[in-house]
Design brief:
The chain is of the alpha/beta class. It contains ten helices and eight strands. It starts with a strand and ends with a helix.
Length: 240
């Protein structure tokens, strides 16, 4: 069936994560100082351990706020280094983490041109993002993505997180399209590809060069129908 709509993930898909590791490393440097640590390396190692474990735990939930996931990961990593994160420190971290990610997410260079070309082809376009409202709305407005999109929906608004089918079903309902009329584009085999394919959507896995998708739990995922390395490949792909 002819593709009539393209649903996009956000981070790793329309935006690259390439600046996130450096920015978060700088944030953990500050956090270590606030904890009275002279060397931030143990905290950074502990955070890696914590976020891996929490990603697996949260993957069992059909819905969660990402601010809670990151708050829990930071609290657990402080415990792993024998420190205690006060409520004030946790509040500081989650606000600083949000600001850090927002500031360093960089729109991909071919994003706006691709969205414009797909719009000219008459395709329905939307964002389906595992993200909280306080991140999605500002990012859409910052880059003017609303000019090309029919809707954008966060997991917070949907009260459902990919790969849970409820999120995909809600966005299909908004679009008025059937699953087989939609191409879902995302960077996460677990969240995007497996979730969309389970409903019968066609899928395109986009490679965010040098950046593995975050928050993977290690669950087995299905193969995407297509693998692409740039958004610019999409117009030719949807035309068949």
């Amino acid at each position: 069936m002819t593709i009539q709509g393209v649903f996009f993930d956000l981070g790793g898909t329309l935006y690259t994560y390439k600046h996130v590791p450096r920015s978060h490393g700088e944030l953990l440097n500050v956090a270590a100082t606030r904890l009275g640590m002279t060397d931030p390396k143990p905290l950074k190692k502990a955070y890696g351990t914590a976020i891996t474990a929490l990603s697996a735990e949260y993957a069992e939930k059909s819905y969660y706020l990402h601010r809670d996931l990151f708050r829990d990961a930071f609290q657990r990593c402080t415990e792993l280094v024998g420190a205690s994160a006060t409520p004030d420190l946790l509040d500081w971290y989650i606000d600083a983490h949000r600001d850090s990610v927002f500031g360093c997410l960089e729109i991909k260079p071919d994003c706006l041109d691709t969205l414009s070309r797909l719009r000219e082809l008459g395709l329905y376009q939307c964002i389906v993002s595992n993200i909280d409202d306080d991140m999605l709305e500002p990012l859409v407005q910052r880059e003017g993505l609303h000019r090309y999109l029919d809707h954008w929906t966060s997991s917070e608004a949907a009260q459902s997180c990919k790969p849970h089918r409820g999120f995909f079903e809600l966005c299909l309902q908004k679009s008025g399209l059937r699953a087989e009329q939609v191409l879902f584009v995302g960077d996460s085999p677990e969240h995007d590809i497996a979730g969309a394919a389970a409903l019968g959507m066609r899928t395109a896995l986009i490679i965010d060069e040098g950046m593995p998708p975050p928050l993977q739990s290690g669950k087995q995922a299905v193969d995407a129908h297509h693998t692409i390395r740039s958004l610019a490949e999409l117009p030719a792909l949807v035309r068949g």
